[in-house]
Specification:
Helix content: 55-70%
CATH topology of the largest domain: Fumarase C, Chain A, domain 2
Strand content: under 5%
Length: about 425
């Protein structure tokens, strides 16, 4: 299912062919830099630039060598000939692997940021559409006070904008390459080569490295993805709750011919949102794996390598998928304003209890006494299903402090919505 919905562009980044092409690009750029320094003959460089490889041949060699970079270099050398001695000169495998990984992760990050921009546009449009669509706000799953559905979406927009900014910074953090050799000392390749290669790849040279780029950079990248995934799950869970039969204030679009259950023909399930909740768990677990990769032995061990071969393609492909799926769900979300209005009245006016409390306190009654008075009537509403406003307006003790006119104002839903426009101005500018 994920492959069917994922855009081909993201999948292409992580193919074996693109990975080897990126390795070759790093190797060729290093040769270019060394040619300028007089370490590689010009004629040899021209021959090296025609280098190519066969994935099948790389796999054959790796089956014997048990080393992917050596297999790659051998396969390339077979086609280049004697001039291949200048390829990988003074470098170590991680010079190529880590610089290439930065290049690939930056490419993937660029696609994810475009996805974020699209999602933000969709949320913004729906937020303004429902800016004044009144519904009940809930805390602990219980009715609290009135809000609008647009406000809920404005909160999502603000959060996703933070995710976008956070991930932009994370992409910048991983956009560093290194060609500093086996332990980071540039013993066999001067810093100028690293600077040249990184500049050509639109990367920056790592100020200091060991045999590898330090994995705190990767940790930030995958953690930013995990936070983004959790925000997507937050939206998905909200949609799942709103689609519950007892609530049904909004639901995922159910297309013609779609089926909800193999057993129950009546079912319309929030399968897209549930899918996103599950995938968010993978994104988060991959972030934990990335954090585990930070503490390596001395100047490097290989324990991080196997992890990154999984989490780099998986997390970026999954996030690309998740952002596109939540975008489609929100874009096509079916909203039921009349049901929202009906549900707002389920507690027969209790959502206005705080305003009664505040009015009594403002009239000179202690907060404790005011709270007890209001709660007494509220509990009658819960138990006896009476109308809260009626109970308040018939309480002579309350009327001694608060006028009937004031009580009418208290039970006007617009009291709660007077700053919605101000919030929208803050969020959307």
């Amino acid at each position: 299912m994920i492959k069917r919905y994922t855009r081909k562009a993201m999948g292409d980044i992580w193919t074996d062919e693109n990975r080897y092409m990126t390795w070759l690009k790093v190797e060729l750029l290093a040769c270019e830099a060394m040619e300028e320094m007089g370490k590689v003959p010009k004629e040899a460089l021209q021959n090296i630039k025609r280098a190519s490889f066969s994935i099948k041949r790389i796999e054959e060699i790796e089956a014997e060598t048990k080393h992917d970079v050596i297999a790659f270099l051998t396969a390339v050398a077979e086609r280049v000939g004697p001039d291949a001695r200048y390829i990988h000169m003074g470098l170590t495998s991680s010079d190529v692997l880590d610089t290439s990984m930065a290049f690939l992760m930056k490419q993937a990050g660029s696609l994810i940021l475009k996805d974020c921009e699209r999602l933000l546009g969709i949320i913004r449009k729906r937020a303004f559409e429902h800016k004044d669509t009144v519904m009940v706000g809930r805390s602990h799953g219980i009715h609290a006070e009135p809000i609008t559905f647009g406000l809920k979406l404005a909160v999502w927009y603000d959060e996703m904008r933070r995710n976008q900014g956070r991930f932009e910074r994370a992409v910048e953090t991983i956009s560093f390459g290194k060609l500093s050799g086996a332990v980071g000392t540039f013993a066999n390749t001067p810093p100028e080569v690293e600077a040249y290669v990184c500049q050509k790849l639109n990367l920056k040279p790592a100020p200091a490295s060991t045999q590898i780029i330090q994995r705190d950079r990767y940790g930030e990248y995958f953690t930013a993805l995990a936070i983004m995934g959790s925000s997507i799950e937050k939206m998905a869970i909200e949609i799942r709750h709103l689609q519950r039969t007892e609530v049904l204030e909004a639901e995922e679009f159910f297309s013609k011919g779609q089926k909800g259950s193999s057993a129950m023909p009546h079912k319309r399930n929030p399968i897209g949102s549930e899918n996103l909740s599950g995938l968010a768990r993978i994104i988060r677990s991959n972030a934990m794996a990335a954090l585990e990769n930070i503490p390596l032995w001395h100047e490097r061990d290989i324990s991080h390598s196997s992890v990154e071969r999984i989490i780099a393609p998986d997390s970026t492909i999954l996030m690309d998928y998740m952002l596109n799926r939540i975008s489609g769900i929100i874009k096509n979300l079916v909203v039921y304003p009349k049901t929202m209005e009906k549900n707002l009245g389920l507690l027969k006016g209790l959502v206005f209890s705080q305003q009664v409390l505040l009015a009594l306190a403002a009239a000179g009654i202690s907060r404790e006494d005011a709270y007890e008075t209001v709660q007494t009537h509220a509990m009658r509403v819960w138990k006896e299903k009476q109308d809260f406003k009626t109970l308040i307006i018939n309480d002579e003790k309350i009327l001694e402090h608060v006028s009937r006119k004031k009580i009418e104002e208290i039970f006007d839903v617009n009291y709660h919505l007077k700053y919605i426009s101000a919030i929208f101005d803050r969020v959307f500018g």
